[in-house]
Amino acid sequence: MLYPQEFDVIVVGGGHAGTEAALAAARMGCATLLLTHNIETLGQMSCNPSIGGIGKGHLVKEVDALGGAMALATDEGGIQFRILNSSKGPAVRATRAQADRILYKAAIRRMLENQPNLWLFQQAVDDLMVEGDRVVGAVTQVGIRFRSRTVVLTAGTFLDGKIHVGLNNYAAGRAGDPPAVSLSARLKELKLPQGRLKTGTPPRIDGRTIDWSKCTEQPGDGVRGGMNPDLPVPVFSFMGNTAMHPRQIPCWITHTNQRTHDIIRSGFDRSPMFTGKIEGVGPRYCPSVEDKINRFADKDSHQIFLEPEGLTTHEVYPNGISTSLPFDIQYDLVRSMAGLENAHILRPGYAIEYDYFDPRSLKASFETKQIQGLFFAGQINGTTGYEEAAAQGLFAGLNAALQCQGKDAWLPRRDEAYLGVLVDDLVTQGVTEPYRMFTSRAEFRLQLREDNADMRLTEQGRVMGLVDDARWDAFSRKRDAVSRETERLKSTWVNPRILEAAESERVLGKAIEREYNLFDLLRRPGVSYPDLMGMGEGRWAPATKADDADARPVVSRETLGELHDAVVEQVEIAAKYSGYIDRQKDEVERAAHYEHLKLPPDLDYAQVTALSFEARQKLAKHRPETLGQASRISGITPASISLLMIHLKKGG
Ligand code: FAD
């Protein structure tokens, strides 16, 4: 049957990429259909019930700044929040939350069901409708044909998915879900370059069978006994608040020991990884426990976090023992650890192998180079992680919508967003193992902080139609307050005649010898915004340097009202890091010189004989869209870029 309604955007898959893609396209006014295996599993966390962390939290904040769902759903579902790296610089500080997976899923589903322009439909997609070199829709398992102008494919780990537990294996998309076999075959037929990757998950444990007294408690931030008890409980979304959080509960820590390691080693001969049953490459930064024991043989213990899966379940996720060893080994290794001697395993751990598609075959908008209107996002592009998937989903969804609206693609730069780094890394360098985000991947990370994601992106999101009125109003108030306060500090001068030496010494460590504005004082190490607030009340020099007659009060909590914390954070970071930030801006400008220089799509690299044979081959294979992309292809040297630039200048 041909479904009577035609859509602008069809999104296949209701995971983290698919839900953000569908919400984004619908927010932008496109008639959007989300086709997924099972409506009950919309927004399901396949693995670890946690969101955020270093690099990942940055992506979540960017998704949020563009009106996405992940941060708000985490605020509604988060049962423990922490700021990682809280004692380090603001660029690497990151929010991480433990989520109640049921509450999280419920929040995502509610947002989807209440989103105008969005239709949900439960069916497996088995085929894509392609006319010439353009996708025109999708066909489901029972033969329903849905026509659309664009399709965003976000099939996660499901394409020809195969689960391994020891030497046993079976076809599945993840435990309890069917694989997407027909769709995988169809994509192979379309000759889209693909490969196999793998990922794994630990066995889950019934918390009632854990002896918690033998484990170490780890409360979240803002909670007595936690790492940062004096901080407020963190909030993920720029629109969130602590009142949205459910009850907060702790995680726990136990450890592996020599006996655990011996048990693990005794299963190596039945490990699908070590016996060659699994061909796909796994995530280096999230290795299985057998991989850790094998690679770091000299370590006699590893920390294992026992993370509750929710407030209404006893299920516990033991973070650190992802494994595909046979079940008897899993049983023994779990029970060898302190507190887990009588643990009951609720679900076995497993590894899953699946198809991914080489992201170098995507344009910078995530549209496939081969088939117009077909976009890929999420794990299918060789990444791992909910946050990476959500960011890509939002990106592909908004670009599919822009295409339907006849507009140019939105391509954030590497100095503008982690999203820009993620997309650029994928389309220019591809992946050799599941890709995850780290702050170290961003060369301009001082600018790409969690705290300023809204300042970087919300205005662009508003222009595209992604940001609703409530978010826009809140953002505008904050932006204006930050700019007003920065100006005020810059134009408020402290004069040694007015500021008593004793007071100056108390706050600044020494008496000031000349006039300074407050912004400059704030730049000094050890001087904080509250220090300035409490200093010299009623004795400030006036706004202009020339006129020092009219003393004005210092700013107070009341002056900035509810925006106080957010404004102070921005003003303080701008002052403290202004030197570094300015230097980084200069670097960005220098790089921009060639970053956006377009390379003709039909450029015949074989004719650029000044380039080495290897460089010509690589450029012809990857066909970068800009000189900036070309510079990031492995093996393309700065010298090759100069030669290419000369060739372009000559009109080549
Ligand atoms: P998914 O979340 O996999 O969602 C895919 C969606 O598409 C599902 O709703 C599915 O039903 C639907 N779908 C697929 N094919 C079709 C079709 N043909 N028709 C209709 N619907 C379809 N990440 C980490 O960061 N760390 C980890 O340690 C980690 N371990 C993992 C372990 C396992 C076993 C698994 C399965 C995943 C793991 N992940 C891990 C990865 C994480 O789950 C994914 O990165 C993330 O969920 C990817 O999001 P996605 O939206 O791309 O795909």
Automatic annotation (TrEMBL):
It is found in: Cytoplasm. The keyword tRNA processing applies. Residues 575-646 form the tRNA uridine 5-carboxymethylaminomethyl modification enzyme C-terminal subdomain domain. NAD-binding protein involved in the addition of a carboxymethylaminomethyl (cmnm) group at the wobble position (U34) of certain tRNAs, forming tRNA-cmnm(5)s(2)U34. NAD(+) binds at residues 282-296. FAD binds at G13, G14, G15, H16, A17, G18. It comes from the Bacteria. Its cofactor is FAD. This is tRNA uridine 5-carboxymethylaminomethyl modification enzyme MnmG. InterPro entries: FAD/NAD-bd_sf (IPR036188), GIDA_C_N (IPR049312), MnmG (IPR004416), MnmG-rel (IPR002218), MnmG-rel_CS (IPR020595), MnmG_C (IPR026904), MnmG_C_subdom (IPR047001), MnmG_C_subdom_sf (IPR044920). Belongs to the MnmG family. It comes from Hydrogenophaga electricum. Keywords: Cytoplasm, FAD, Flavoprotein, NAD, tRNA processing. The keyword NAD applies. Pfam families: GIDA, GIDA_C_1st, SAM_GIDA_C. NCBIfam families: mnmG_gidA (TIGR00136). Homodimer. Heterotetramer of two MnmE and two MnmG subunits.
